[in-house]
Amino acid sequence: MPDVTIDNRHVSVPDGSTVLDAASALGIEIPTLCHYPGCAPQNSCLVCVVSINGSDRLEPSCSTRVVEGMTVQNDCDTVRAARRTALELLLSDHAGDCIAPCQNTCPAHMDIPLMLRQIGEGDLAEALITVKRDIPLPAVLGRICPAPCESGCRRSASDDPVSVCMLKRYVADQDLATGSPFVPPRQPDSGKRVAIIGAGPTGLSAAYYLQQSGHQCVVFDDQDQPGGMLRYGVPEEAPERDVLDGEIDIVRQLGAEFRMNTRIGHDLTLQQLRDDYDAVLLAVGHIDDQLGGALGVTMSDHGIAAERATFRTDLPGVFAAGGSVRQTRLAVRSVADGKDAAVQIDRHLAGNTGLVVLDTYNSLMGRLREDELADYMLGAPELERITPAGGLKRGYGPDEALTEAQRCLQCDCSAACDCRIRQYATQYEADRNRFRGTRRRFERRVRASDVIYEPGKCIACGLCVEITRQAGEPLGVTFVGRGFDVRIATPNDQSISDGLGRVAAECIDACPTGSLVFAGGTSASCGSHPPPTE
Q1: Which of 33, 244, 270, 293 is the most exposed place for a label (fewest CB within 10 A)?
Q2: What is the CATH number of domain 416-518?
Q3: Where along the chain do its domains lie?
Q4: Under CATH, which architecture does the 3-75 domain have?
Q5: Helices of type H across 38-107
Q6: What are the residues facing 11 on neighbouring strands?
Q7: CA–CA separation, 292 vs 192, rounded Å?
Q8: Burial of 446 (0-12, 13-18, 19+ CB in 10 A)
């Protein structure tokens, strides 16, 4: 039972154990992409490297055996830099999107493909939950949003984009029409109070999410009714006022209090709010230097000066978002700011002021080449974009919405939520462009099988080769090619399902990049933010 020290923690492990085994015994996670229980070490990814006894030469932990008295550094600058480089090399020619282009171009990053799948399956209740996870006013925005998400739709390069905005509106309209619309659950009362200045899209959005977190919000505004630009900045007929009132009422049902005809800097001061509340959010839209000076906040060229990632101003406990900090006419962007600000205020109220939120790594292929698009469209439903028979003002009927949703190409990666290379690329803040060259051609091999293989995502870890070999599969899979051209294939170029045989599910479970997935496989929303880290 040799004794080994990892990051100043001691453990005794059986003879023959690897450094990876010893770390696991201590509850220390060492990242690895080519390791799988029961398989021999592959030594292919080099993401699991560690420093042994202070040596500058790093060793793979998955194959390095422990010896008595060994000292291992797993979390130091040298090791982290090496792991980041290994990840960046593996991702340098990755041909695949983590999230669909429509979701990436949506300012709120709503999980559009999941919503469309749920509409296509007739599950409007779940579709609404998916929408409201990121957009609290979908019926309103569905009427006025210029739909930047549709500019990213891959289908637009072939015929017409999916009518995302109108489908979002359809889901929300159906919910409002029930007379008892969905109100998300609220966590127990936190005892914290938040003052929100401005009842426009940013303030309403922040209140919607902060109330769910158990914080009591009081929304102040100098107008007679809440809504801001949604009520006073658009033509009288768009959106319909009853739709706007219906969605604002859901914010009220969550417990938010509205105090109208109250002007900040005139009827009450920012200092009074700071004294009476645990946090303050400035969401007043455009603010001039004179008012900014009266409030005591520092101004920038575009409005109130606030940290981009945290929305914090230079006044403790005071946050600013939306049109208060930048010039924007997109209501969906203001709504997104309100949600993100709510996340940061929630962390502030919990005392987590030192937490940093890492941006989730997203691989983006960009525009597909003509030959790639032709492959992408194979098997896609040949349906033209549907214009509502009753006119745009009336919107989709049930059958129209179902058919339009089924036009979606489902461009998101079904393995994105548990993809290990994405998880580690986020953790180590990998730069996908550091070694970027000409990416591999995008391919998706389905044929008549039930397994999809995307060679552009494969990192040649060798796990599926080893698993099929151990299982004695008659065909199995093997490596073909050399260097960057290496790929997985079956003899005589038969289907990947034939090669994987009985162990297809195990190979898919072992695959660290989503290169192997079951056809039709879908995953739930991964959420908008990864867990915060110190």
Answers
A1: 293
A2: 3.30.70.20
A3: 3-75, 101-181+368-405, 193-219+246-349, 416-518
A4: Roll (3.10)
A5: 77-91, 101-105
A6: 4
A7: 26
A8: middle
Strand locations in 171-238 (E): 193-197, 216-220
| DSSP 3-state of 513 | coil
The CATH class, in words, for 101-181+368-405 is mainly alpha
- Nearby residues of 20 by Cβ (< 8 Å), 6 or more positions away: 30, 32, 35, 48, 61, 62
Average pLDDT along the chain, 534 residues, taken 10 residues at a time: 93 94 95 93 93 94 95 94 96 90 94 95 96 96 92 89 96 95 96 97 98 98 94 72 95 97 90 96 90 88 91 95 89 95 95 71 88 81 89 92 93 89 95 84 71 89 95 92 80 86 94 88 52 32
CB 48 within 8 A of CB 61: yes
Identity at 315, one-letter amino acid code:
L
Cα 354 to Cα 520: distance, rounded to the nearest angstrom? 41
What are 136's two structure tokens?
């609290």
Distances (CA, A) of 117 to 121, 126, 165, 376, 406: 6, 10, 15, 18, 7
CA gap 401, 419 in Å, rounded: 32
- Return the residue matching tokens 């990192």: 459
**Domain 193-219+246-349 of CATH type 3.50.50.60:** yes
